[in-house]
Amino acid sequence: MRLCVVTVLLMLLTSVSCAQDDGWENMFNGKNLLGWHVNESPESVKVEDGCLVVHGKRAHAFYVGPNGLTDLKNFHFKSKVMTMPGANSGIYFHTRFQDTGWPAKGYECQVNNTQKDKKKTGGLYDVQDNFEAPVQDEVWFDYEVIVKGKQIVVKINGKTISDYTEPEGLNRPERQLSSGTFALQCHDPGSKVLYKGLMFKRLDD
Length: 205
Description:
disordered N terminus, single chain, 39% strand, Jelly Rolls, globular, 205 residues, 8-stranded antiparallel beta sheet, mainly beta, 5-stranded antiparallel beta sheet, 1 helix, 10% helix
């Protein structure tokens, strides 16, 4: 009996060790906005029932990380997302903090299933748009973004929605791959989106 207990404990310890050593970094603790910096309308970004909720006047929650210096080039990002009816949001990457306005740097991955904007969830906004919502409102779905070299892949529930490779000679300095952090968008007072399970893994350059 004692041997069985020891074996189980060793298996559990091994499991925990693997979970810590697999390279994934949690971005949200489910309790507060530690590691996040919200710009023009801080009241639009809240923590409710373990979720990061964007709902209210325009605002963007920038991930700054534990030391305030998060800067990524190649990565694999994951989050669980739920949109409410009429919601419009976005997940930015390779961006940087700014006090007001829509982020001027980086790419935006669209989050919109039923709002009037024809550009729907999983598209790269104004770059490789998706015009058919892959999921429904009020249902949790998996959102993944993978950036490696010049390639960007966006997956919803494991299905690739966007697969874009930047062309050679692209001259769009603020809107092309470089490095930076993530930001979650609060689009307008009529929009409500919930995020949880936010994490990323750095990939080799």
